[in-house]
Amino acid sequence: MNLLIKAIHRLIFLCPVVPIRTNLQQIVKSLRLYKNSEPFQTRRSPFTWLDWFVIRRSEMRKIVTGLLVGAIVSSTAVASAASPTTLVVNGQESKPNVPLQIIQGRALAPVRAVAEDLGAAVKWDDAHRTVYVFTGKQKKNDSFDLSETESLAPALRLVINGKEIKSEVPPRLINGRAWVPVRDLAEALGSGVQWNASKKAVWITNKIVNPSANDFNGQAMITFSYDDGLDTFYDFALPLHEKYGIPATDNVIAGKIKDGARTMYLDADQIKEMNNRGVEIGSHSYSHEEGLTTLSDKDLDFELRESKAVLEQIVPKVQTIGIPFSMYDKRVEAAVKKYYKAARNFEHLQNEVPLEDKLWLHTAIAVTNETTFDQIKQRIDQAIENKQWCIIMLHGIDPDNRDLYEIKPALLEKVLAYVASLGREQILPVNTIDGVSLAGK
C-alpha cells in the first residue's frame, strides 16, 4: 500500500493540477470502490491494481478534479443551509414560515407576508391567476381588466394598485403560494429596498426606523437636521425619509406655527403627526428674529423657554435646539443648558465620538440650492472613514427651489438613497437626541 501511495503521489506531481497530498488516502479509497463495483476503464482493459502505474495523466486529473468539485459543492451547500436570506421590514426581521428563495439573482418571498408587513392588502383571483395588492380600500378600477384570452394564460400576474408589474423573474406558485420578487413588490408600494450583503438580508422600509442602543457599535453616524419648521418638510421630505427609513430632526420656530393663515410654516396637527411618524421635533427659538448673542439675558431666556413650552403643548418632549443664525457663545450655551440637552451650531465641522460638548454640536455642511450631491457625499464618506458624526443642515425641500436654502426633492432622495445603500453597519442614521445619547457614551 505504501508503494501504491508513493506512485499516486508521483503521478499527482506529474499532472498539471493543484496537488492535494493530504487526500491521497481518499483517492485510494475511491479507486478501491471502482474496483469493487464497476471496472475503471482505461484504453486497454478493465482496471487492475497493476494498472496504477500506467494510468494516464488525464485520467488522474479527472479523479483529483472530481474530488475538488465534490468538496466545493459540499461546503457551499453547508454554507447556504447555515445562512438563509432574511427579510427585514422597518427594522424588524420578518418571519414568513418559509425562507426567501433566490432565483436568477432575485429574492422572492410569499406576496402576502411582505405586502401585509407594509400595510397593504392581498387578494387572489384564481380564475385569472392574478395576485392583487392594494393600499387602502380597493377601488373598482384597481382590478385590472383581463381579456378572455389573457385569462386562460398559465403565467401568474402581479397587479399593484391597478397596475400590472412586469419583472425579469415573473411571479410563480410554490407549494400553493404566490411568490413574487421582493424588490418589485416593495418599490411598487413606494417602499425603499436595500440589500445587506454582510448580513445576507433584504431590508425594506416605509417608515422611519429610529435606532436602538444595540445598533451602535462605534461606526459613523449621520443626522438630517431641518430648520424653521417649513411645511415643505411635511409635503416632500417626510415621505422620502419614510421610504428609506432614515430618521430626521425638524427644528421648529414656535412663534411661527401656522394657525389657519396661509404661511409657509407647519401647523400644530402636522407637527404632532410628524412626531408620531418618528420625526424628532426640536426648537429653533421662539421668534428667530435676531441672533441669540445679541439679546439681553431676559430676552434670551424668553426665546429658549417659550419655544420649548409652546412645542411641548403639541409633542411630549423637546430636548434639542438648532441655534438661529448660528450665533452662539458661552453665555448663550449656559442659557441653553437650562432647557435643552443638546444644541446644534454651524461650523462646517464633523463631530468626534465620544462627544466633546453635547451643547455645542457641529454641522458638517449646510445644504443650499448651490450644493451638489458630490459635496454632500464627500462629507458623508469622510465621516465613515474617521467614524465621526456627520450632521447635515437643511431648510426647505421644494421642486421649484426658488430660495437659496431650498433644494429639490430629487437631490434629497439621492442623498438618502446613498446613505441607505451604505448600510447601518457603516453609518447609522440618527436624530439629534438619539445621536447625543449614543455618541455621549
UniProtKB/TrEMBL annotation:
Keyword terms, alphabetized: Signal
Predominant cellular place of this UniProt entry's protein: secreted
Gene Ontology terms: biological process: carbohydrate metabolic process
PROSITE patterns referenced in this protein's UniProt entry, alphabetically: NODB
Gene3D superfamilies xrefs: Copper amine oxidase-like, N-terminal domain, Glycoside hydrolase/deacetylase
Residues in NodB homology domain copies: 220-419
Family annotation (CDD domains): CE4_DAC_u1_6s
GO molecular function, one term: hydrolase activity, acting on carbon-nitrogen (but not peptide) bonds
Gene Ontology annotations for the cellular component aspect, listed alphabetically: extracellular region
Locations listed in the record: Secreted
Protein name: NodB homology domain-containing protein
